[in-house]
Give the backbone structure.
Amino acid sequence: MLSYKDGYVSDITYTKGYYEALNPLKAKLVFLQQGQKFPEVTNACELGFGQGVSVNFHAAGSQTNWFGTDFLEEHASYAKTLGVASIARLKLFDESLEAFCERADLPDFDFIGLHGVWSWISSKNRSLIVRFLQKKLKPGGVLYVSYNALPGSGRKSAIRDLLTLFSKDQGSKSGPDEGILRAFQQTSKLLNLSPRYQKSNPSVIKLVKKLEGDSARYLAHEFLNENHDAMNFTEIAGLLNDAKMRFVGEANCCRNIRSLNLTKDQRIALRDVDDSVLRETMTDYLLNTEFRRDYWVKDDGSSEKGFDAAALEQTRVMNTSQKPTLPSHIRTNIGRVKLNTEIYSRLIESLSCYQTKSIAEVETELSGANISVGRTRQALAVLSDLNQVALVQNDAQAFASYAQTQRLNRYILLEDPSLAERNILVSPVSGGGIRLTRLQMLFLREALVQGYDPDQWKLTEAQTRDLLRTNLGKVSVTQRLTQEQFLDRAKTFFGDQGAFLDALKLV
């Protein structure tokens, strides 16, 4: 039988996920894309930080003072362990939202984020968050919030109802993890026995297929909390209006580009809609949106918008991809959309060799090729979603954050194999996580132990057995490497990717 705390599953910890949208620099890129002014972020907060991977990465990767709470003690304990490893500027608590929001020792915040929280808490706790925004988010401050959205999330209700019933039926017959997986199997089996239901609800059947193979952790926290409220955009905008929040854009930059996501007829239908709330709600119905990740700004009563010349000079960008590629197409809601290769080739060339440039420099360079500012920013947004570029900190901030990220990355590689398996390390340059491959994580771990010359590495039989297996993208398919192949790939990595490692200062 599952245990609950304030309506939330409490005896199964959440996954150790990293969420880039909680990085203020990602938010800054969206504000640039949307022509909105972005604040200087000195104090930031994450509500419901789960295992605390994101809050620790963003604290270690910056000089921002980070605060946060998660009312599951096991989550908070693990998150604090990561904080001890990095010695970054963060204060984490294992308090309820109510207790944390009433603390008298919290500063006013420039950035507040919550991922995977809003839809899974009670209406009372959502009201607490709105009051917290009223009280502690500075005028001009930024909110990031993700939530299950309508109409797309409607298909989850049937699965949730059946999972809940079957999970309760399991009772004390088995442990929580096993009971959840059995409940999911019962749900899937029942729906497969009903051709009529399958015919009437194809999207539900598709979701069940998609969930096959997911962990008990994910299923529990996604479907089995006592609260599971999907909302349309109009509803969440109404709640946040009490805190004077104004919508800016989605964390998925490409979703903010209507020409990439909407047909001509759909764009015409939205063309004369001036109300942003109505427009976003209509868009969600046109796209059958299931999940949203949104940035909002607290209205400060100022009419000043956008990035001025000084802000553009101070806002820097760089290539963060190990092997930059020229995209010819991008897959969106309307299928494969062809991109203007001249624009993207010019942009990739401008940022070649991991050069760090200001937005103003990039825009000036591309304007010489008759590429407008709007098209340049749109291309930056697309490459950001493709994990090829990112906004970065200034040199002083990156230098000051370097020791913190080194300590955390060493801890992950040498002491925390479960987090190392997520294949992400933190960069003091980007202020956030950089994704690697499993093999590359193994190379870096061995380099910390035996140095950066693979010719000098000595692998034991146990290491050979454990290290020389790499995931090829499917759980059931693995590749066995000989020790010689492993060492050859390591030498290639440190040779070919040396500039990448040096530029992002991962180790």
About this structure: Confidence is low (pLDDT under 50) at residues 471-477. The longest strand covers residues 137-148.
